[in-house]
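Table 4 source record.
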Amino acid sequence: MEPGDLLYLPPGWGHDGIALDSCFTCSVGFRAPRGAELAASFLDYLHERGLPDAAYRDPGLRPATHQAQIGREMAEFAQNQLARIRWKRGDVEDFLGRFLSTPKANIVFSPSNRYFRKK
């Protein structure tokens, strides 16, 4: 890059740069999520990459004794499926790089020619 150049990195592009001369570096929109938002987004990330998939079957199911009661078999099935979800530190790091650099839904960037130097 040359003096006056602007480098835009779109969401999801990890980067690590070293300035050789004096410069300004601006990071716009870096997130500081709350725990619940982080957890929900991480589960979405895992889902996009393929969570365990199995269909619940209960051919011998009898009507529930109490209304709205969730049967033991269904609870065990759910417990077993959720216990199969696995991730590694690399998955967390990849997720964080993507998630923290993605603009929030209410943030919209539109290009403006006044910021780009014509050659």
